[in-house]
Amino acid sequence: MEVVYDTGSDWLTIEGDNCRVCKGNTFNHENSASFKFLETVQSTNLSYGSAELKGLRASDQVCLPKSNDLKGSEEGVCLEEFEFFLVSEQEGLTSRIDGVLGLSRSKLPANLEKEWRGIGPLYVKHLAKAGLIKENTFSFFLESYSDNKALTSFIDIGTPVEEHMRPGQPIVWFKLKPHMYWMVTNVSAVRFTTQNGSIDKNKEYKWLKKGKHGYDAIFDSGTSLTMVPQDLYEMVLSKLLREGGNIHWEKQDQMYLVNCKTGAKKLPSLELLIDNYWVEMRPQDYLV
Predict the structure, then answer these.
(1) CB under 8 Å to 286, separation ≥6 — which residues?
(2) pLDDT reported for residue 162
(3) Which residues are bridge partners to 136 per DSSP?
(4) How far, in Å, are 8, 109, 183, 283 from residue 179 at the CA level?
(5) How confident is the model at residue 62, as a pLDDT?
(6) How far apart are CA 26 and CA 20, in angstroms?
(7) What whole-number distance in Å separates Cα of residue 79 and Cα of residue 210?
(8) pLDDT: which is higher, 166 or 25
(9) What is the pLDDT of residue 73?
(10) 217-237 in b/e burial notation, b at 16+ Cβ within 10 A?
(11) What pLDDT is recorded for position 126?
């Protein structure tokens, strides 16, 4: 089964064999001797943006391929009787995916503890609890098509692998809100780096007034878009396009359209100041 690794959700969801509208591969639970339904009447719907999943909670042996940080057999590592969500109906998922593996945090803000359905079982957290990985962490290695047409993006589960990091760059830890999302709370400025790597200190745009706090932002592996607050949208986009020189662009609704090949060569890198650390997004990272 091929799943989306989603930092914005919690449950492992798998499309069941009886889901007639599912577009990916489906799981036939009758072929598994260790499978068990944990409920017989649907009690939960799972929402993913505009998509909604319906199904039943179940448990089974759930395995991942072998990784350098995993103990176990050469075939991979497994959790016995892991609880997941078997999808019987879905609406809004158009991609040919087989399911979603949630990578959210296990925290909830106080104002949602009574209203929310609670955090579902987190697969990576259970791997660490079972001693199958050294620490409850994961890391993404993401490549764009312009970097490598083979697109060798992957996820490391467990201790970060230094060889997969950008050379000379340390791991940076950000303060997070007490929430299930990976949410930083102090995005306070933006600047643009030219294609030759130069930075003009006079072109650092700080949007905070004295005494004001920064914007909240979520790191979400389940979306390909970089969202900008509505009150900053026009300012950031206009300055970004101005830094790109004479690049041709068109506006349709709330989207700016440019030629991707030209944009990757001429547009600057966009950097956000988060907790006094500049985080870079290259043109090939923010162009879709």
Answers:
(1) 226, 270
(2) 84
(3) none
(4) 11, 5, 7, 30
(5) 96
(6) 10
(7) 51
(8) 25
(9) 42
(10) beebbbeeeeebeeeeeeebb
(11) 96
Q: What is the Cα–Cα distance from 234 to 46, expressed in whole angstroms?
A: 34
pLDDT, tens only, 199-225: 666 667 776 655 567 889 999 998 878
Confidence at residue 150, expressed as pLDDT on a 0 to 100 scale: 62
pLDDT in tens, 99-150: 999 999 998 877 766 666 678 999 999 999 999 988 999 999 887 665 656 6
Q: Which two tokens mark 187?
A: 């995005």
- Whole-angstrom distance, CA of residue 85 vs CA of residue 51: 15
CA–CA gap between residue 206 and residue 183 (Å, rounded):
20
Mean pLDDT over the full length of the chain: 84
Question: Taking a C-beta distance cutoff of 8 angstroms, is the pair 19, 115 a contact?
Answer: no
3-state secondary structure the chain: CCEEEECCCCCEEEEECCCCCCCCCCECHHHCCCCEECCCCCCCEEEECCEEEEEEEEEEEEEECCCCCCCCECCEEEEEEEEEEEEEEEECCCCCCCEEEECCCCCCCHHHCCCCCCCCCCHHHHHHHCCCCCCCCEEEECCCCCCCCCCCCEEEECCCCHHHCCCCCCCCCCCECCCCCCEEEEEEEEEEECCCCCEEEEEEEECCCCCCCCEEEECCCCCCCCCCCHHHHHHHHHHHHHHCCCCCEEEECCEEEECHHHHHHHCCEEEEEECCEEEEECHHHHCC
Measured distance CA(162)–CA(167) in Å, rounded:
9
Distance between CA atoms of residues 61 and 2, nearest Å? 16
